[in-house]
Write a structure and sequence with these properties.
alpha/beta; Rossmann fold; 8-stranded mixed β-sheet; about 45% helix
Length: about 260
């Protein structure tokens, strides 16, 4: 557990676990390393797992800057440089998947195999309306309501019905500092501006595209589009799991991820 100083003076919190080939686990909009916590024991048996809190989130510097997916990707590239990682596998969930797209396109020699998890190609009408609604809820009703609203779309209804109280209690008890509303809103704007569709046909990395069919945040048609346009991609759609399917079907997510990254 440590901090890496970026070129502009901001710091990224990071931690490493395990031994083996480097594996970057990149979280989504929430931007904090504990998103991956339950997966670390399994993945660290095969890889040197690198986790980090995005700039603005968790224990990293709460910079008031113009956020973009390209900026998030460059922060991660700087972390790789600081840790002496010339090349790594990358598993990116949602926003992390957009970051993975950017790194693989703009620094192809730095990425080995790529897992694009519950991510998207661009902000279509549905995606834009969803995130503009979530942003408006944050502005008008505050962070607590924003979090409760988020849970309704991040998990499938049946799973949430069984785990809602425990989930919300854990979120309230989190030791991490809350991301300032201003930064959350700036990060949402970054998601809405992201679009690298024109470049995707030249992304030549072996890629596993994975999502759940009932994802209400990044619907499965985004994953289908990614798998169709990427030259060397395999698509896996889980029957259920919602946006955070990796938590709902944890064992299957880990089995497929390890098999893909470690396979011949």
């Amino acid at each position: 557990m440590a901090e890496h100083r970026l070129a502009d003076g901001a710091s990224l919190y990071y931690e490493t676990h395990g031994t083996g080939p480097a594996l970057l686990l990149v979280p989504g909009l929430g931007g904090v390393a504990p998103f991956w916590q339950r997966h670390v024991p399994a993945l660290a048996r095969h890889f040197t797992v690198v986790l980090h809190d995005h700039r603005g989130c968790g224990r990293s510097t709460p910079s008031r800057i113009a956020y973009s997916v390209a900026q998030m990707a460059d922060d991660l590239r700087q972390l790789m440089d600081g840790l002496g990682i010339a090349k790594a596998h990358l598993v990116g969930h949602s926003t992390g998947g957009a970051i993975g797209q950017v790194l693989a396109l703009d620094h192809p020699d730095r990425i080995d195999r790529l897992v694009l998890s519950a991510t998207w190609t661009h902000a279509d009408a549905y995606f834009r309306r969803l995130f503009e609604t979530r942003a408006e809820a944050l502005r008008r009703l505050g962070a607590a309501f924003y979090g409760r609203l988020g849970n309704l779309v991040l998990y499938p209804p049946g799973w949430l019905a069984r785990h809602a109280d425990r989930l919300e209690a854990a979120q309230r008890a989190s030791p991490l500092p809350a991301t300032p509303d201003e930064i959350v809103l700036a990060r949402i704007e970054a998601l809405l501006a992201f679009d690298r569709r024109a470049d995707l046909p030249r992304l030549r990395h072996r890629t596993l595209v994975m999502a759940a069919r009932d994802d209400a945040v990044t619907p499965a048609y985004f994953s289908e589009a990614l798998a169709a346009i990427l030259p060397d991609a395999r698509l896996v759609l889980h029957p259920t799991g919602g946006h955070f399917y990796n938590h709902v079907v944890q064992d299957e997510f880990e089995r497929l991820t390890i098999g893909f990254l470690a396979g011949a």
